Fold these 3 entries.
Entry 1:
Amino acid sequence: QRLATRLLDLADRFGKPSEGSVAIDARLTQQELADMIGTSRETLATTISSLRERGIVQMEKQSVVVLDMEELRQVSGG
């Protein structure tokens, strides 16, 4: 939930809409993202993997692409 909320915030601030998805062009490492939400990199990796399997996000190098903003909002509890 914290990751989803942070990704929504980053998408609002740095997101670039493209063909129904939003690319977050913030050049964040997984460690930096983990630090932002107060978790370990390992826990973050597991959470991102879960979101990726559900078709919500995709990781590309140091950027995140949100494939389904509405589903991400639901995950965040918002």
Entry 2:
Amino acid sequence: EELAAGFATRIDGEHTALDLLVKTADLPSAGESLAGFGLATIFQNMAATNEQLRKEAFEGKEVTLEQYNEMQRMGKTEEEKEIMDKEKDIDTNELCRDRIRSMANANVPRALVSLTEGASEHTLEQLAMAMNRMAEEPTVRGVMIQQGVLSACIKIEKNEGPTETDVMKKVIRLARHCIAKMLITTNPSLLTSAQRLGSIRPLIQLVRDIKATDLQHFEALMAVTNVASSGEDAKNRIVTEKGIPSFHFAMFSDHEMVRRAATEA
């Protein structure tokens, strides 16, 4: 919160702490350094609520966050429960959206793109999470595309190969999902031809990804539908990338909204 609100080391300081983080990310070879991982982690934490971070920590575990919280309360006295309730987290989705807008105004998207150069898999994972979380806020998607996030995600996605690690698979899925989020609300005619056509393969691969969530399938289908509206070149590329059988596959999803989005696509 303090970073987003413009914290500076001195009252008369020329640069805020957030400005300095962005400047550090722009230094040559910053992505390859240990500092690159630290910067990426700060940015992705700023763009999430505490509740979201806690929920993610329980993904794939045998208990959910709600069950864990309930178990924590079971062993407490009434007095301890009252103290727990008073210490409730005050971070909200609205505060998080404000932070993301502040980050966009401070050129954080450009910093994230700079850090992808030469980054390790684990740094790339943090960067892809940061981009994905920022793309949750519709008002900053245009700025993100202008500062190179869409092109960077398309480039990351091209790293896919038969020998990739589990971390890299996650990075590629996050990059594809970030492309989907940005292109749901963006007018495709404002994109360059390379961006518009280059985004089609990642979106269709996300639709075909059996490990992706229903939300990821739904948003990828919505984005493809939007891109398809831009003209014949986009439609032809969708056909070339085996888009139509992918839409058929999604039309048999368990989730009604995924089926609807696939039919629309």
Entry 3:
Amino acid sequence: MARLWLHIGAPKSATTTLQRFLTNHRDQLSAKGLTYVSPQGRTSSNPVAVAINRTRTAEIAALSADLGRQINSADGDCIISSEMFFGIPPGALKQVLTDMTPETTQVIVYLRRQDIYLEAKYMQKVKNGRFAGSIHDYIKKFDGSGADYMSVLSPWMDEGYTVQARILEDSKMVGGSVISDLMAVCGLDQQPDEAVEQEAANRSPSLERLQLLQILKTLGVKKINRIQRSLPQSSGPKAKFFTAEERGQILAQYAACNAALHKQFFAHLDDVFDESDLDELDTPENQAFSQAQLAEIESVMRAVL
């Protein structure tokens, strides 16, 4: 029986890298028995999640018909990917993916240590112009934003689905790459013939860049995500926001979750996540631009606008 591999994220866990790979190698993967299914050949199945979340009945029906045709005509297994499926319960997705049953479907999810995950989610919101404020404001507003992984995965297991949880750390992935790891999980011993480099497909901006985008947000500029995409990649180091002490506090908050993950999925590992870097006691610079500089920049931006 052909399998349906359902890649549900988690968000900010190399999903863009995987989706680009699956899109760019559709023909090669299909020849090896793995068909990448997505609405109208898109890079991801994010439109499915949007239609479900916004209760677009007609769109849900159209997407269901489109994806159903692709699955039924595939020769071998199928894989569907959207980080926006993370947190959507099985019953809601069943509206669109009618072939999704516990007998035929395996759920794949890549997980990052919670402090790293929260930083990445916050940076994504800021660079897309969807949040203005500190990372602590973000965590308070979104109540952890899905960092309690077991609460997200439990509904799938309760419904009888097999969940393949993976850790997004080089030492814990087959071949040290999220691409080679996914191929191994899906039963492909070899990658497509073309050499693949795992690129930073969705590279995080520097702290300076984020501060400037936040100013634009406060000034009411629209479509900040387009501005961000039009800029060259940040030349500065990736922004970091938590001190080592704060990282330890976050991991303590999710200790019960991670203990449950360890028992359910990773009993063969000593620990779920690598925490060795916490000993470095790295303290990020909380202000790339000083308050005086930010005020001056904001005055100039306001005058330009």
